């Protein structure tokens, strides 16, 4: 399986933390932020990336605990001009608002309380 096939497999088998974070990243379009999920970048596949902001967000499980591989990967991604935020899965699940606030701060945007109406979220508040 090539990188694109593996990325597709990862998109179809996201962890609970990745699914929750994806719901929020896709619902909030702040300052033009547009995240993509499970994207190949060079030899790696990142969990979430906003190419415009050059920001990568990683949702990590226990397999990443002090991983030398992650240090090498992050160093390479930084040479490509990316900033990387890493969050533990349990942090995403238990402290979602704090995780989102950190992401939006890194993007230079305040956290929006309103979901994006372009995807249908929050439509009950719009007048027809």
User: Strand-and-helix sequence, N→C?
Assistant: HHEEEHEHH
Give the count of structural domains. 1
Main sheet, how many strands, which sense, barrel? Answer: 4 strands, mixed
Class based on secondary structure composition and strand pairing: alpha+beta
Q: Return Rg in Å.
A: 15 Å
The CATH homology group name: VSR Endonuclease
Percentage of helical residues?
A: 40-55%
Shape descriptor: globular
Q: Kindly state the mean pLDDT as a whole number?
A: 79
- Termini gap: 47 Å
> Strand percentage, roughly?
15-25%
Could you walk me through the main structural features you see in this protein, from its secondary elements to its overall organization?
By secondary structure, this protein is an alpha+beta fold. It has a single domain (3-63, 70-111), classed as Endonuclease, Chain A, CATH 3.40.960.10. It has 5 helices and 4 strands; from the N terminus they run ααβββαβαα. The chain has helices spanning 3-12, 16-27, 68-79, 89-94, 96-107; strands spanning 36-41, 44-50, 55-60, 83-88. Strands 1-2-3-4 form a 4-stranded mixed beta sheet, sandwiched between helices. Helix 3 links the parallel strand 3 (55-60) and strand 4. It is globular, with a radius of gyration of 15 Å. Mean pLDDT is 79; it is low at 113-128.
């Amino acid at each position: 399986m090539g990188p694109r096939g593996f990325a597709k497999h990862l998109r179809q088998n996201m962890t609970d933390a990745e699914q929750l974070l994806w719901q929020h990243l896709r619902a909030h379009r702040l300052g033009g932020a547009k995240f993509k999920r499970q994207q190949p970048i060079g030899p790696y596949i990142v969990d979430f990336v906003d190419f415009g902001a050059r920001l990568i967000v990683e949702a990590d499980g226990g397999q990443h605990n002090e991983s030398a591989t992650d240090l090498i990967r992050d160093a390479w991604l930084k040479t490509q001009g990316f900033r990387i935020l890493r969050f533990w899965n349990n942090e995403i699940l238990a402290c979602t608002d704090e995780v989102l606030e950190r992401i939006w701060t890194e993007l230079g945007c305040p956290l929006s309380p309103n979901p994006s109406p372009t995807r249908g979220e929050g439509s009950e508040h719009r007048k027809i």
